[in-house]
Amino acid sequence: MSVIKIDRPGQSVLMMGNEAIARGAIEAGVDFSSAYPGTPSSEILESLARVAEHFGLYAEWSVNEMVSLEAAAAASLTGLRAIVAMKQNGVNVCSDFLMTVNLSGTKGGLVIVACDDPSAISSPNEQDSRNFAKFADLPLLEPATFNEAREMTKYAFELSERLGLPCIIRSVTRISHSRGNVELGELPERKRSPSFEGVSIAGAFVALQHAALHQKLEQAREDFENSKFNWYVGPEGAKFIIVTSGTGWFYSREAVAALGLDSEVGILKIGTTWPLPEKFIIDHLKPANELLIVEEVDDFLEQNIKVLLAEQAKTLGPIEVYGAKSGHLPACGEMNQDKVAKALATIKGVEYSGRDEAYAQRARELVQPYLSPRIPTFCAGCPHRASMWAIKSALKLDGRDGFVTGDIGCYSMGAGPAGYFQLKTIHCMGSGIGLATGFGKLGQFDFNRPVVAVCGDSTFYHAAIPGLINARFNNSNVLMVVLDNAGTAMTGFQPHPGSGIDALGEPAPVVDIEGICRAIGVPVKVRDPFELDEAIEELYDLLQEDGPKVMVFRRRCHLAETKERPQKKVFVDPDKCIGDECGCARFCSRVFNCPGIIWDPTTKKARIDEIVCTGCGVCAYLCPQGAIVIEGN
Amino acid sequence: MEAGKGSTDLEKEVLNAGLCTSCGACVGICPYIKVVKDRVAVIEPCGITDGKCYDFCPRTLTDISELDRRIFGQERSDSSLGPYISIEMAQAKDSKTRNRGQYGGVVSALTAYAMSKGEIGATVLTKPFNESLMPTSVLVEDSSQVLSCAGSNYIASATLARLNEAMKQQTVSLGIVGMPCQILALRKMQASKHENGSKEVKLAIGLFCTWALSYKSFHEFLKGKINPSQIKRLDIPPPPANKLVVVTEAGTLEFPLDEIREFVKPTCGICFDMTSEFADLSVGMVEGVDDWNTLIVRTPEGKMIIDKAKEDGIIETKPLPEANLSHLREASLLKKKRALDEIVKRTGDKNNLLYLRLSDAELRKLR
Q: Which DSSP state fits B155?
């Protein structure tokens, strides 16, 4: 049973941050939810979809974050409550709409959850989405605890509704993906019925709209002055105060305690970080003459506090501010207790050694023997490994120094050894084909290297179609390879328009990739990448053709496949394996490099790792000696 | 044969130097070297420093005298045509075979005959114009399928790749029909210290060849002029015609040879062998005679098949007129001289003959 469904108000339940956000939405009586999957945000919509039927709410995986926000905004315009969740890159995708719907305004509560991925553990970039709140003049909330994530979400709906503005919640990986106690609130009766009256138009009397937006933001500020999400702990009249938000709250508390500074350092925790509750902050900073600002990624809070200090210089007098600018804390990467403690210790001149380096070294040494040496790679049985080998082969055969522009998905690992270093560019979703259309038009400047753009199936729907249309419209010499593994694999195999099921697991129409390509007027071929020789030849042939063309490499993610079907047993016939000799030279374990194949240095033969092998069988196809056997074949 | 070189050297010295004949000798041995159409590439270095691929290649060091001694037991006395037992004219007695074949139908007739007699269990042949300009190499296991592979291609397909594949699985003795470079590669395989099953190739029929076309550029040239999938036959009639005749389902087109020569594979310019000098039997056209072939019998194995085939009424032979023979010698010698000139032009050193190693005596005769 889903934890967010439990109807026991007052009970404390262990929840993931993203579940707490979903629970907050349920407690606010959310009607409509939409998202495009992206780490660390995906579990919000997944949680809501799981209880959608139970609560009678609507949940969808949208084709991208822009559409996702637009769909949610539509519900809001009818007076329904809507939530939309995305990772930081998604905020960029939807920002065009965001920068106009702030002007036109909304009706029912509309909450945008932006989950940032500091240190880019699962992202192509590191970005602080809080800047969008300031940029778009929208109220911003930053949960610091799991229960706060629930409470803030619930409150965000009310605030949004009161102001007629979308409200942004900024989470980060360690809030979204960690678990903590969440106190359950009441589950409301849902009673809204939608109606759409009047208009929702940005661009009419924009200056007036913009001025009105600023006024709404002032209302938010007033609301924030008395917010329960802002508080101070520490000695009264502390001269040294840490100002923090989000994860910085836990880290700061731990650091102060670790250094034994509880009696002299206060912590001012701000949950409503835009617009700042100025009076609240000024009141608490009056006794201070030193501040340390602790936050995650950009010096967003730091800069805004500094502006406030400058404005209040007469009242507050000179205050020294430590943080990113002073070099005491980084304005990039994940924050942690250790970084805060070190900064605090430096400023306060106290001893702090953090984790002993010798201890860390010993821990590494103890663990090392149990770890298999492994580079980031595709899973055993991943179709991308074969696709990358096919692309590499075709480009080599073509002989014109062709290269691959990459995109966002599991196949991004194709830039490294997993994909034989084939990808030469990686940026944002859809940029692979976009860049390729440009590279493919440089012939008049004597740049004639063939360009192959790869993108996943989910990426194709999300952002690649305009690039392909551009390639067709401007007749760019580009070969697009759609690596269709039948799902949004990297984020957990969420359905997409090609999956045939929707967010609730119900049957959905399939949007046909080849059909789209054909309608654009681009020749398209479809091939199972495990049929490697044919795949290579067809890619080669396509590379010889001018203009845009598409190859769809279609094979389902083998991890998803093995969940549904029993896997075949694969083994190496040691009598046939020639190992190091000419004719093989350990191709399977050394070059093709599937983690399911191991080189046994004692027997000098390849061996299948039965634990890792998913039984896909492509190695049996590739083995030059026919030494790899699939049981039953 | 030079030792201690592998795929990386093959890539550098042959593929990147434009010497590859796309014979396919290096393909199908390992997962590292691939061929598509007539393009061969080393996809990834294998790290082996003493590789079959390098050893088998007809464009790595090739000692002509040593091969002569190995195959024929002695060095050649005829510098223009290589070692042989006899040179005659021949034709298939079966008119259907003759009509389907390029000239006298001798290759098809002999291949089918050798298979039906059990001399060879299967043959690697090249099938032209199977709905594509690019020919495909096939393993024919039934003599009745031989005729579907009749006809000249003028585009090199990687025949030996198919042979390599066949040798991995095949337990029967094999035959092959190939161009001079392919027959040379086969002989290098058979002479190599690397065992690969090529000793099971019992009948090598070599074709005469002046050059082959590069698929890519020729295909591009034909694009828009004809539909390549409709080609039925290519022919270069004897001089002074000086043209390429393309017979298609939609009609016949002719192109001046000078226009076509642009698409000749660069490696053909350094080729030393017009008449498949290392084959058991070499077969080509007879100038001025449409339905006969020139047949050069080179080895006792070749002679045995010819004798039997004549006895069984499969082919008939008659003497090749002296004028034709001297013409053949001239043409072959001209190809050798041109190749030597071209090689020296490329290396800039008259002692550096790239892949060729010739005895001083042989070299003197040619220069």
A: B
Q: Tell me: do B137 and B58 sit in the same domain.
A: yes
Better-predicted residue by pLDDT, A1 or B53 = B53
Q: B134 — contact with chain A (CB < 8 Å)?
A: no
Average pLDDT, chain A: 96
Read off the pLDDT band of B3 (50, 70, 90).
Answer: low
Q: Please indicate, yes or no, whether residues B298 and B341 belong to a single structural domain of this protein.
A: yes
Residues of A in contact with B39 (CB under 8 A): 397-399, 540
Domain boundaries, given as residue ranges, for chain A: 3-188+203-225, 231-348, 383-563, 567-630
**How many Cα atoms within 13 Å fall on the side-chain side of residue A160?**
34
Q: Are residues B230 and B180 part of one domain? A: no
* Residue B2 resides in a domain: no
* CB of B233 less than 8 A from some CB of A: no
- Give residues with Cβ within 8 angstroms of A302, minimum separation 6: A293, A295, A321, A323, A324, A325
Range of the domain at B92: 7-214+264-366
Residues found in chain A: 633
**Is residue B28, in this structure, part of any structural domain at all?**
yes
Does residue B156 sit in the same domain as residue B74?
yes
pLDDT per residue over B167-210, tens digit each? 988 678 999 999 999 999 999 999 999 999 999 999 999 999 99
For residue range A240-281, list pLDDT tens digits in order: 999 999 999 999 999 999 999 999 999 999 999 999 999 999
Cα B351 from Cα B344, distance rounded (Å): 8
Written as one letter, the residue type at B185 is A
Q: Which residues make Cβ contacts (< 8 Å) with residue A76, sequence separation at least 6? A: A32, A82, A106, A107, A108, A109, A110, A160, A166
Residue A551 has pLDDT above 80, yes or no: yes
Answer whether B266 touches A (CB < 8 Å).
Answer: no
Phi-psi region of B297 (alpha: psi -120 to 50; beta: other; left: phi over 0): beta
Q: Are residues B293 and B198 in the same domain?
A: yes
Q: Would you say residue B1 lies in a domain?
A: no
Assess B39–A contact: CB distance below 8 Å, yes or no.
Answer: yes
- Amino acid identity, position A388: M
How buried is residue A15: exposed, middle or buried, by Cβ count under 10 Å (0-12/13-18/19+)?
A: buried
Q: Do A396 and B43 touch (CB under 8 A)?
A: yes
On the question of a common fold for A3-188+203-225 and A383-563, the answer reads yes
CATH superfamily, region A3-188+203-225: Thiamin diphosphate (ThDP)-binding fold, Pyr/PP domains (3.40.50.970)
Are B54 and B121 part of one and the same domain? Answer: yes
Give the per-residue pLDDT at B2: 46
**Domain A231-348 annotated CATH 3.40.80.10:** no
Which residues partner with A480 through β-bridges? A453, A550
A174 has pLDDT over 80: yes
The answer to whether the Cβ–Cβ distance between B39 and A582 falls below 8 Å is no
Q: Give Cα separations from A345 to A105, A318, A334, A357, B69 (angstroms).
A: 46, 22, 19, 18, 87
Task: Mark yes or no for CB contact A587/B31 under 8 Å.
Answer: yes
- Predicted structure pTM score: 0.95
Contacts of B223 in chain A (CB under 8 A): none
Per-residue confidence band for A482, with pLDDT thresholds at 50, 70 and 90 = very high
> Domain spanning A567-630 has what CATH number?
3.30.70.20
Mean pLDDT of B295-302: 97
Nearest in space to A10 (alpha carbons), one of A241, A146, A185: A185
Contact between B38 and B155 (Cβ < 8 Å): yes
Q: Is residue B82 part of a domain?
A: yes
On chain B, the residues whose CB falls within 8 A of the CB of A591 are 31-32, 44, 46
The fold for domain A383-563 equals Rossmann fold (3.40.50)
Interface test mutation site (partner A, options B43, B50, B167, max chain A beta carbons within 10 A):
B43
